[in-house]
């Protein structure tokens, strides 16, 4: 068990925030997913695609008020469409109920609380009663429920004097948002969070996009959730399945890493700046997710089934003239060379 003495303390971004920081160590081999789509197409030949999507910053824009991180009707329709063709799961740090309230699609699977609250039965057509659905819940951190409620109350108490700080109870984890806190008070937020966690040695804290994430120290994360879903849904066969995970945050790196280590799967980072990442490709922002998902539909759900070779060639030719958005065109020279996944 991790204790407070060896647990990492909350670290606030100073000047260069997580979302703004750059690291070229792997960014240099992380090209645009759209301009490199031919590589994804090639890797998906004769494989079933399973799609994993983060929510905040991936399907919805990052906004000042996390309660208002709504996805657009167009994005909802797009996700609904891809879910008709590919098994699709949302993997979010939000509580499962809250992310469902945002997404509002019953066709897909949901893993809330950074994968610690998985409901894998919603898409089962036979599982329409609440009793049946609840029976298929997987909650590896259920023993922490009371503790999370308690730490959430403490965090609300200690942050209420810090203007702009908000605490979001995500059931099996807690988010302390400081996006609206004056920069000079960021360290104070980290300090009060760390102080509270001294009394909760089995909880840990990590930083995200202007948010501190407090969660149990159990060996479970979004990567484990992806592995669990692939296994429980019967998509463990790496020969015939290509998992694709799209996400924007540090917690999504656990999923990117799992796919990279499986040597089967494609991580796509959503970021408007290059970052150190375990992902293979990058998209600038949710607007480019909106471009990629229909591409996947056109190519994987239709083209490969109809006349793969010629249409694929045509598509690759069109990619050679890829100029979709400023954030992509700068990577035009980086799509050369094979990336094995
Ligand atoms: Mg996110």
UniProtKB/TrEMBL annotation:
Q: Which pathway does this polypeptide act in?
A: Glycan biosynthesis; trehalose biosynthesis
Q: Does the keyword Chaperone apply?
A: no
What keywords appear on the UniProt entry? Answer: Hydrolase, Membrane, Stress response, Transmembrane, Transmembrane helix
Enzyme group, top EC level? hydrolase
Its recorded reaction(s) are: alpha,alpha-trehalose 6-phosphate + H2O = alpha,alpha-trehalose + phosphate
Annotated region (Disordered) at: 1-25
Q: Which domain of life is it from?
A: Eukaryota
Gene3D superfamilies (UniProt xref): HAD superfamily/HAD-like, Trehalose-6-phosphate phosphatase related protein, domain 2
Q: Which cofactor does it need?
A: a divalent metal cation
Which processes are annotated in GO (biological process)?
Answer: trehalose biosynthetic process
Q: Which residues cross the membrane?
A: 289-307
Recorded GO terms, molecular function? trehalose-phosphatase activity
- Which EC number(s) are documented for this chain? 3.1.3.12
**Role this protein plays:** Removes the phosphate from trehalose 6-phosphate to produce free trehalose. Trehalose accumulation in plant may improve abiotic stress tolerance.
**The family this protein is said to belong to:** Belongs to the trehalose phosphatase family.
Protein's recorded name: Trehalose 6-phosphate phosphatase
Annotated organism of origin? Oryza brachyantha
